[in-house]
Design a protein that fits this description.
The chain is 32% helix and 38% strand. It has a domain of 107 residues: Gcn5-related N-acetyltransferase (GNAT) (Aminopeptidase, 3-Layer(aba) Sandwich), CATH 3.40.630. The chain is α+β, with helices and mostly antiparallel strands and 155 residues long. It is built from four helices and seven strands. It has a seven-stranded mixed β-sheet with strand order 1-2-3-4-5-7-6, with helices on both faces. Strand 2 and strand 3 form a beta hairpin. 24% of the residues are buried. The protein binds coenzyme A.
């Protein structure tokens, strides 16, 4: 089994790749952790990818099976999205993906990565903690009755 991981942009991503990403995005919505979460349209992805401060990293195995996206502001970044396809979870792909992604951010001068996660999303929290993210703030009842953790990792 060969997986490919790479950063991509407006010029090198095609519409069917974005449709794969949108299906992954929908998987996250179905999990119900984030009532504020928006599944982006193809146009939204193209808009963000055309902005030079967005970084999209994908893992491909025949099709795109995992992705993450950060937006950079000055020397800080925010991880907006990370999803691994259901059948590929628990194999180290999420960890590899995010380490590759933040490595690229660091190489480009980013000093810190921030993210927000539901306090009930223990799989994601475990992953983030494992690679050195720390909880720096709790947004009480951010998702209706559930708290959100704001996490940060210095790069
Ligand atoms: C969170 C997610 C990206 C993790 O991806 P993954 O490929 O399954 O994760 P990995 O196999 O790389 O595991 C990395 C670490 O995550 C944690 N983790 C992953 N799956 C877990 C599980 N089922 N139970 C507990 N911890 C888990 C563990 O700490 C694991 O390290 P370990 O295997 O050394 O114990 C994946 O579960 C996912 O796509 N979830 C839905 C989308 C989502 O919730 N995104 C986060 C939005 S804030």
């Amino acid at each position: 089994m060969k997986f490919f991981i790479y950063n991509t942009n407006f010029y090198s991503i095609c519409k069917s790749d974005i449709q794969d990403i949108i299906l992954l995005d929908q998987l996250f919505v179905e999990m119900g952790y984030d009532i504020n979460y928006t599944v982006w349209s193809v146009e939204d992805y193209l808009f963000y990818l055309a902005k030079r401060n967005s970084v999209l990293t994908v893992v491909r195995y025949q099709k795109i099976i995992a992705f993450c996206l950060s937006v950079i502001n000055a020397d800080e970044s925010e991880l907006y999205k990370i999803v691994v396809d259901k059948q590929f979870r628990g194999k180290g792909i999420g960890k590899f993906l995010i380490l590759y992604h933040i490595g690229f951010l660091k190489f480009n001068g980013v000093k810190a990565s921030f993210l927000e996660v539901s306090s009930e999303n223990s799989h994601a929290i475990n992953l983030y903690k494992k690679i050195g993210y720390e909880i720096i703030n709790v947004r009480k009842k951010y998702y209706a009755s559930v708290d959100a953790f704001v996490m940060k990792k210095l790069l």
